[in-house]
Amino acid sequence: MSQRLTAQRLLLASLAFSSLAALAGCGLMVVGGTAATTAVVVTDRRTAGEQVEDQSIEMKTASRMADMFGDKARVTATSYAGRLLLTGDVPTEADKQKAEESAKAVEKVRDVVNALRVGAITPLSVRTNDTWISSKARTTLINTKDVPSRTIVVQTERGVVYLLGKVTDEEGQRAAKAVAGISGVNKVVKLFQIVSPESVAKEQATAEQGSETQAAGTSATAAPDTNTGGAQALPVQ
Question: What are φ and ψ of residue 16, in 5° steps?
Fold first, then answer.
């Protein structure tokens, strides 16, 4: 089976799953409720639509790279709110430019950050270490106070850690400082979309209001007023 066909099938499967999840419950997850979306919808500052678009961008870009280079290159596409990061290895400088131009043509891409390296494909041992660094970075962000870890995407290439997400300037600074202290990290590159604290607070208030409304609706449906002496459904605290 060709790489292109495989990528296309993966794209269709991914988009189908994501679309069903969005249609089934684009609202926030209600802890203890009967239905919930995935955790990323709860905590990611992208809209559900943006998340689906980013998945589509990554899959379409991967398909394009496979068509152009086959096994002669290694290109990883990471998208956040339409900002597309390209990392990996390509044989020549011309190939690097070709990859960028092809990525720019993908639907919904706002801009491309071309961090491709010209040279031989990075050894497996180095890539394995990069995977460990990314895992460690995610754990570090989760454990760092006042950092919205679930809205930050981490990608590591040869010890260079790229951070993408919607954060305030202070959140971004704290996140970068925390990751920079990890053993094996050579550099941290911030590719954040900076948002104001006011907009974050407004979005959070809207999300909490929507969650309370959904919880109230679920409680009312689950516990009709037919027996005043029975158990009452209370909102999750």
Answer: -65, -45
pTM of the model: 0.74
Of 134, 138, 131, 127, nearest in space to 40 by CA: 138
Distance CA 169, CA 18 (A): 30
Residue with tokens 């980013």: 54
By three-state DSSP, how is residue 77 classified?
A: strand
What fold, for 1-23+35-121?
Histidine-containing Protein; Chain: A; (3.30.1340)
* 229 against 180, higher pLDDT: 180
What average pLDDT score do residues 1-14 get?
Answer: 51
- Per-residue pLDDT, averaged over 133-157, amounts to 98
- Average pLDDT estimate for 214-221: 60
Reply yes or no on domain 123-200 having CATH 3.30.1340.30.
yes
